[in-house]
Design goal:
Blueprint lengths: L4 E7 L6 E8 L2 E9 L1 H5 L5 H21 L17 E5 L6 E2 L2 E10 L10 E7 L6 E6 L5 E7 L8 E9 L2 E9 L7
Antiparallel strand pairs: 1-2, 2-3, 4-6, 5-6, 6-9, 7-8, 7-10, 10-11
Length: 186
Amino acid sequence: GKTVFHVQTEDRGAGNPVLDTTIYVKGRVLAKRGTSYQEFLASPDFNQSELHAILERQHKQFIEEVRAGKLAEMAQLGPQPAASGISVQLLNPATFLKGTTASLEVGVTRRGAATPVAQATVRVLLHTGTPQPFQFEIPADAAGKASLQFHMPRLGPGGAELVIQASAADGQDEIKYTLRPKPSGA
């Protein structure tokens, strides 16, 4: 609907190895989650870039839960007026990239009702700094889902922007992810 959520994820540091995600609505805390990384910190595999990647995955996971209306604490907000239009969601944000293959699972639903939007057009744009973005397009199936798989090009030092768009007679929606290259040696 028209409710604005603020999602903040922080690393509490080596003295208190917890990744805290706090979700605010109108300045008050709606939900708070913490994930300990004590074992990872003590591991010989510990490195800051992987810790940062874990933090980003946790942050994106909670954003997706809020967007999908799946955060249990949202019930405290009371009934929300049904929003018109559609909503696009990346269903596998933490696992879509394996090596050099991107496998995106995308869902398209009507806002408010969360019913699937069959045959919505799903478009994926990958902006890597080249003059033309890589572009893929597929219709959603009867369950409002679309699966796309493609080779992920090598990211330059500036990374890339992944844009997922959906359009249908009910409206359109778009989500964006910033992709960063792994530091050398990681």
